[in-house]
Amino acid sequence: MLTEDILPRVALPSMNDTHLEELLIINEIMHAIDVHDIEETDALLSELISHTLSHFGGEEEQMRLHQFPPYPMHKGEHDRALEELKAQIASWHNRRDFASLSYYIKTTLPRWIVQHVLTMDTVTANYLSSRV
User: Is 3 inside a domain boundary?
Assistant: First the structure.
């Protein structure tokens, strides 16, 4: 179970709220994996993809709107992370390997989120908060 205190805070409360929502979905996926509930895991992975698309899309829209100079780099990292998430989910659908999915959801993804928030999202939120 991931707790809220692992998430760094940024200058925009809306971004913090979105990160927390994502963390809650990840925790639900962890539970579904732990109890080997294939249907619930599938449903929650679908929810995670939808949330991630909305999350990244909203940030990218704000970056474009406010002409954030490193937008291409930040968007590129979103694209890379989204493709990795999609690949993990495709692998899950093909193999139904709880161990592999568990490692990604419990280790790889949370590490990426924390690092991304500490670096790119912090800079982005500081820039955007000075523009709104």
Answer: no
